[in-house]
Amino acid sequence: MAWNEPNNNNNDPWIKGRRSSHNQGPPDLDEVFNKLSQKLGGKFGGKGPSIGSSGLFGLGVIIVAILAIWFFSGFYTVGEAERGVVLRLGKYDRIVDPGLNWHPRFIDTYEAVNVQSIRSLRASGLMLTKDENVVTVGMDIQYRVSEPYKYLYRVSNADDSLRQATDSALRAVIGDSLMDGILTSGRQQIRQSTQETLNQIIDNYDMGLVIVDVNFQSARPPEQVKDAFDDAIAAREDEERFEREAEAYRNDILPKATGRAERLKKEALGYSERVINEAFGQVAQFEKLLPEYQMAPEVTRDRLYLDTMEEVYSSTSKVLIDSESSGNLLYLPVDKLLGSGDEVKTQRKNRSSSAYDQIELESKDDVESDLQSSSVGSRKGRY
């Protein structure tokens, strides 16, 4: 006969078990505690069903030991350059300072973040410029953590997010710049623009980072056209070098030329005054001699002639020839005569009262030589 057939007098064992369990009601907590105490008392020396004093003492020791282990395991140390981010049951609670701290273990968790060290990342790659050229650019970013909580939990990976933001900002700036500026004079502007764009991205995403410095490491054309660009850059550098040299020469020669011009003006003014004074002296001397000449013109003329000849012959070489001698061949030392003539000219030049003859001009170029030739021509015109 089956258990679940009619008139089986409720012989189904499954139904009996369920009924018996329903009829028993909820378990008695006192009975459960007594059974647990008896087991613990038996382990710690208890002999009867009741809990002895030794059993309670052993239970207390276990509880105190567990609490002590839990308490002392909650101590942790945060480094001098770090800040600790504490989470309570998975939710942000507070920021702790460097030093020894405590948190309830299994309730609070913490993570230390270095906020003083300078971190670095590098972004590089082939990028398209505004004039549709391809250039290889490399940039080094230095940053540090300013807000530990935002650094850990605002974005999934702040360092990787910053790397992507750097690449995006650099490509945006390079895309708005010409290749010549990137390779030559526009590097500083690109660095500043990249830093400004990167700061805007960091502020928008609230990463908890601060950009310390941005270094534009390298910018070069592709290898296929590198030689041509190197030649162009070298030519531009030569142009700048020549401009600097010309500027330096101008700064050096202009003060000298200005000083020399002032000196010539002063010497010319002195020469003019001296010539005028000499002319006045000669006129005065002539006016003084005129009455004597009018009184005895022949005597005065002979005396002037003799004085002039004395001055001329006193500084010249003289050769005496006997006109009544026989027609023998005479030897005249022409070289000595010419040499003595040069000495006479030198003496006359040294005795010259003209200040303009003593002006020393530097013959560096054709302009100064023209000045010399013009001064010589003017001197000849005056003589």
Automatic annotation (TrEMBL):
Transmembrane residue ranges: 56-78
Tree of life domain: Bacteria
UniProt key word Transmembrane: yes
GO CC annotation, single: membrane
Subcellular location: Membrane
Oligomer and partners: HflC and HflK may interact to form a multimeric complex.
Family classification: Belongs to the band 7/mec-2 family. HflK subfamily.
Role this protein plays: HflC and HflK could encode or regulate a protease.
UniProt protein name: Protein HflK
Organism in which the protein naturally occurs: Candidatus Photodesmus blepharonis
